[in-house]
């Protein structure tokens, strides 16, 4: 059966408090009671020993007791609530205190309740020899209730002690119940609010945010995580809508062109010349390229399974790619420079390295102005190999910069053929870099240029 967290926490805390109190109470009561009984036993034995010594000393040299001596023994019997009987060596009774004081004691304790009568204990008699000069001259019988002949004060003290334990346990339980309720509310109230926020998010309200503020680290972190999740889902929803719109935009243009051309050919407005058929063919190729790019992205997301790493002279490989791209840059009157750190050896997939560099250099070529320069820098430190592509092009706005790695995203909202591309080049680059356990970062300012930095960790074990 499921129960609320409030009840569960309260019950758990209360059970812990009750268990702790019971354990402490039982152990404390046992130890105190044991120690008090030891004390009572010692005091009782001292009284018996003192009484025996008193009676032996009261006997005169003729082994007789005077009336004053008997009166003194009687007073001691009343004071200590003992029954005392003295016999001579012939077993004749020469003194008895009578049991009236003991009967009175039992009656008084009975009036105080059944509990005290039970604690009083059974009636006990001890027979002790009277000795002088190592010879027995008589016997003394001492009678009392219970093992320790508890007095009214002794019984009152034990009763007060037990009451104090009961009161302490009750007070501790009430205090524990209050504290458990307060602590449980402090934990469950924020969680209830967070649950409501989560349910609203599940219903589709991604604008909602948690306003829970707690001094409990875990609850505050959970609140922050839910807010981050809501923000992320909201961004993903916007990206999904934009992706759908972008894909529709990418597909609509070539399809509209094909439809117009084919209708013109069917209606006889155009003659099927080679130039017009070639125009249709280019649009088909554009569609094919788009679909292939989509398939490539799906493959790239699993490409860690197909990495073909080999030991390469990274400097030499990138230099070859740069030399291959230089004629294209020269046509646009852009300088392409390579700043190399000689003989950087790395374990890397050669084909994917080419794909990364061609995409980055193609972007720099597209978005750089004439008479500007593009610089490629390769170096390494103890941990990473760093590849930097730096241009002086049109740059990327602050609004566009966070989205440049998203599929089909292009800062050029018009999607003109002048810049070309499908908006997935940087998506492919990021995927390939991450497959190599690397990171890619972009810094850019409009009209000042863009810097792309790739860091790929050096795996010394593999080298």
From TrEMBL:
GO molecular function, one term: ATP binding
GO cellular component: plasma membrane
Enzyme class: transferase
Enzyme Commission no: 2.7.13.3
UniProt keyword list: ATP-binding, Cell membrane, Kinase, Membrane, Nucleotide-binding, Phosphoprotein, Transferase, Transmembrane, Transmembrane helix, Two-component regulatory system
Membrane topology, as annotated: Multi-pass membrane protein
Record-annotated membrane-spanning stretches: 12-32, 165-183
Top-rank lineage group of the source organism: Bacteria
Record organism: Gottschalkia purinilytica
Catalytic activity: ATP + protein L-histidine = ADP + protein N-phospho-L-histidine
Domain Histidine kinase: 246-460
Subcellular compartments: Cell membrane
Domain HAMP: 185-238
Stored CDD domains: HAMP, HATPase, HisKA
Protein's name in the database: histidine kinase
One Pfam family named in its UniProt record: HisKA
